[in-house]
Write a structure and sequence with these properties.
Length: 281
């Protein structure tokens, strides 16, 4: 995802004490084994650069890291890392129930999203983010609103940072017809979708208003493929969320998403519709 500042150098995430502590623990365990980052990284199937970011407290560690560490540093190191992980906190601005999925999202090599409630967070321009946040109940302070806007814009850097990750989004046309925030905000959304949809690793499809064959009667869904080629599903409710890891359940989501891709407008037809909608604003 990219923010309105696409093309700028992404800023480093804020450091939290818990992330820095986790990184220091990992570094101490690695040093105790007398392994450099360059030696350690391939043994746990990550790049030296990524290991360095974790040790510096600049990346949220993936959930499978302790298990991979056990094969290299032993079971005691795994226990220590898991204990350190219990105190991890992501930076301000992300809801507590969203944190686990955000970590999965950061590592995904494939990400699918179908939305019928709002434009997916990774595709929202700043004007739209502010429009939906300002309309939430209960209201929040200006300071908290700014933290949450900044956190979402930072998440959106994923698309620019991960050109080898395949992103696919299916969005209901009604989300644009609703014109949340007014015509100017909707125009910004459409421009942003057209910009991101031109990227080689991004596919955006619109599900038209009139479509008798729509498989997503159970609502929105997100599906991610991890670096070790496992698939994980994610759904959201009112101030809650659910990770779906059972292979049978994830298979259902993948089947439904595959059918939705055939039912939605293809990418070229989507561009034509978006341009037509923009011209009508």
């Amino acid at each position: 995802m990219t923010s309105d500042h696409d093309g700028n150098t992404p800023s480093e995430p804020e450091l939290s004490d818990s992330l820095k502590t986790y990184g220091a623990v990992l570094k101490a365990l690695r040093d105790e084994a007398r392994l450099t980052q360059e030696e350690f990284a391939p043994l746990v199937q990550y790049s030296p650069h990524y290991v360095a970011k974790i040790e510096q407290g600049k990346r949220f560690p993936p959930g499978e890291l302790p298990q991979r560490v056990e094969e290299v540093l032993g079971p005691l190191a795994t226990k220590v890392l898991r204990a350190a992980a219990r105190s991890l906190r992501r930076k301000p601005g992300l809801a507590s129930w969203f944190q686990h999925w955000a970590a999965i999202e950061e590592e995904a090599i494939t990400l699918y999203a179908y939305e019928c409630r709002a434009i997916p967070g990774l595709l929202q321009p700043e004007a739209y983010i502010r429009a939906i946040f300002e309309r939430r109940l209960p209201p929040v302070t200006e300071e908290r609103l700014e933290r949450e806007v900044a956190a979402r814009l930072e998440r959106q850097q994923l698309i620019a940072q991960k050109p080898n990750t395949a992103f696919s989004f299916i969005i209901e046309q009604c989300l644009l017809e609703r014109r949340v925030g007014g015509s100017e905000v909707t125009r910004a959304v459409i421009d942003h979708l057209l910009l991101l949809g031109a990227r080689f690793n991004v596919e955006i499809q619109v599900m038209p208003l009139l479509q008798e064959e729509n498989t997503a009667v159970d609502g929105q869904m997100y599906i991610a493929e991890t670096p070790d080629h496992q698939w994980i599903g994610y759904t959201e409710g009112q101030r809650s969320s659910s990770l779906i890891t059972n292979p049978r359940d994830v298979s259902v989501l993948l089947q439904r998403y595959g059918r939705l891709r055939s039912q939605a407008l293809d990418c070229r037809a989507t561009v034509r519709l978006l341009e037509q909608m923009r011209g009508a604003l």
